[in-house]
Design brief:
Structural class: alpha+beta
Strand content: 15-25%
Distance between the termini: 56 Å
Order of helices and strands: HEEHEEEEEHE
Number of domains: 1
Helix content: 10-25%
CATH architecture: Beta Barrel
Radius of gyration: 21 Å
Strand order of the largest sheet: 3-4-6-5-7-2-1-8
CATH class: Mainly Beta
CATH superfamily: Cyclophilin-like
Largest sheet: 8 strands, antiparallel
Length: about 200
């Protein structure tokens, strides 16, 4: 009887230690769809899912209504799923959302300039554009990796990262080649509204 009791205690102890070790070893995900706020028309919540984790963002429809409507429409069509962050500039931005993957693609339409007085701070979401044409934004966006005051009032700022900036900073450190393109693709596995 004593042997059975010791065997059961040993089995319980081994199981408990194994479970505790696996819980400690499992990476903690930054945000899940269940712990992120739910999207509302006044505060759309969009999650960018990458191989390095999730970046949870909120959009500002009161600041950039046309931009937010356009990007949300693309998000809800699955447009961004499988695209990449094709340009990563440490200490500056992660840029993605180009269907061509090289910085020259668009979604077949352009968004007019919707500049605001909101500053470009770490985690700001803003629209990329073609050179000096302020009305050339389409589907490409960038995430600011730091405060970038020279972009203020020059680009369509439409949202903010509310969780997962550590994921953005992890992506910031990937090896890059010419023109700040990642050596290995950095995929936007899925980009979805958290309804």
């Amino acid at each position: 009887m004593t042997r059975i009791l010791f065997a059961l205690c040993g089995l319980w102890l081994a199981t408990a230690c194994s479970q505790q070790a696996s819980e400690q070893a499992a990476p903690k995900e930054t945000a899940t769809a269940t712990d992120a706020p739910k999207s509302t028309p006044e505060r759309p919540i969009v999650i960018i899912e990458t191989d390095s984790g999730r970046i949870v963002t909120e959009f500002y429809p009161q600041v950039a209504p046309i931009t937010c409507d356009s990007i949300l429409s693309l998000v809800n069509q699955g447009f961004y799923n499988g695209l990449t962050f094709h340009r990563i500039v440490p200490g500056f931005v992660l840029q993605g959302g180009d269907p061509k993957g090289n910085g020259t693609g668009d979604a077949g339409f352009h968004i007019p300039a919707e500049f605001s007085s909101r500053p470009h701070v770490e985690g700001s979401l803003s629209m990329a554009r073609a050179g000096d044409d302020i009305n050339s934004s389409s589907c490409q966006f960038f995430v600011c990796l730091t405060t970038i005051p020279h972009l203020d009032g020059q680009y369509n700022l439409f949202g903010q990262v509310i969780s997962g900036m550590e994921v953005a900073h992890k992506l910031e450190r990937v090896p890059r080649g010419p023109m700040d393109r990642p050596v290995e693709p950095v995929y936007i596995r899925r980009m979805f509204e958290n309804k």
